[in-house]
Design goal:
The protein is an alpha/beta fold and about 325 residues long. The chain has 16 helices and nine strands. It has three domains: about 140 residues, Rossmann fold (3-Layer(aba) Sandwich), CATH 3.40.50; about 50 residues, no CATH class; about 100 residues. Helix 1 crosses helix 2 and helix 12 crosses helix 13. Helices cover about 50% and strands about 10% of the residues.
Length: about 325
């Protein structure tokens, strides 16, 4: 278990996840209060990754339910393995015949077969899905309900009942209660507004795009071999690109992809040609790429002016041959 908020930061950092005190506080309180966390924010900011590293840090099994439109109870909770039931029926047909022997009427024969329902409707024929796996796990687990905003409101209402009591009722078997209360994390890309009922049951955590300082720390953690100046230029330009009116704003995952791409291309500086050639790594729509290319010259001029304003006034130097400049220098 996490001992305090600082231990959350330390333990997650060991797993390669850089978080601030706000995120660490919510994770610690969820553990102490036994409440689910609803993690909202843009795609690619580390919501799912947070659940993974928390599970690893606490040595808990990670059980993941990926949500999608049309997800129903059978896919999320449990379903009967009818093919296996049919196979058992064929294998045990002689025993079924013996049980029906001597029946004088069809009703009596049906009653005798019905009395053996417990054989064919038992736990051996139940296929547990993620929710039931988390409830019936013998060891403490972490249940990740990923992209819950993609599910239907009806499924969200069903989810409330399961998460409130951590138990499930199977008509043929009765009520199955959790052996170990799991830590529950739900993620949402904010595709739709979640219900007040769900939010009321959860601690809320919004993870946004990181500021430049935090993004530099993340980049240093994930791609430590990148040149520090190149990393600083990359992060600075990424924040400028995020200020544009784009259909899909690049997130931290795109920052890491861009950094690794530049290293694969043996780039030593972020010049205009390199940026133009690699924009498709961070921007996923042609319209966004065209818009960024049009704005690139303006961004370069703005960054050059900022750099000139910050540079100290120095004595004139002898004129030398012009050198190739980086995109932000």
């Amino acid at each position: 278990m996490f001992e305090n908020v600082d231990s959350v930061i330390t333990d997650l950092d060991k797993q390669g996840y850089v978080c601030d005190k706000r995120i660490a506080t919510v994770v610690y309180l969820a553990q102490q209060l036994g409440k689910p966390i609803l993690i909202e924010g843009p795609a690619g900011v580390g919501k799912t990754e947070l659940a993974k590293v928390v599970a690893t840090s606490l040595d808990r099994q990670l059980i993941r339910l990926q949500c999608y439109e049309g997800l129903d109870e059978a896919k999320a909770l449990y379903e009967w393995e009818y093919s296996k039931q049919l196979l058992y029926t064929q294998l045990l047909k002689d025993q079924v015949s013996k049980a029906m022997a001597g029946a004088k009427t069809l009703t009596e024969a049906a009653d005798r077969v019905a009395s053996e329902d417990s054989v064919f409707f038992s736990e051996r024929f139940v296929v547990p899905r993620p929710l039931m796996q988390a409830i019936t796990s013998d060891t403490p687990a972490l249940l990740l309900i990923d992209e819950v905003d993609k599910s239907d409101p009806e499924f969200e209402a069903f989810l409330l009942e399961v998460l409130s009591d951590f138990q499930v009722t199977i008509p043929e078997l009765g009520t199955i209660k959790a052996k170990q209360i799991p830590i529950v994390m739900l993620t949402s890309n904010d595709a739709r507004e979640m219900s007040d009922a769900l939010k009321r049951r959860c601690l809320h955590l919004w993870i946004d795009y990181p500021n430049e300082e935090l993004e530099m720390r993340i980049l240093d953690q994930k791609v430590p071999e990148i040149d520090k100046r190149l990393a600083k230029d990359l992060v600075s330009l990424m924040h400028s690109i995020r200020d544009l009116d784009l259909k899909k704003v690049p997130s931290i995952s795109e920052t890491l992809d861009w950094a690794r791409s530049l290293m694969a291309l043996n780039a030593t500086e972020l010049d205009e040609a390199m940026v133009t050639d690699t924009l498709n790594v961070i921007l996923k729509y042609e319209g966004d790429i065209n818009k960024a290319q049009k704005e690139l010259s303006k961004l370069l001029e703005q960054k050059a002016a900022e750099a000139a304003a910050e540079a100290p006034i120095a004595a004139p130097e002898p004129v030398a041959a012009p050198k190739k400049k980086g995109v932000l220098h």
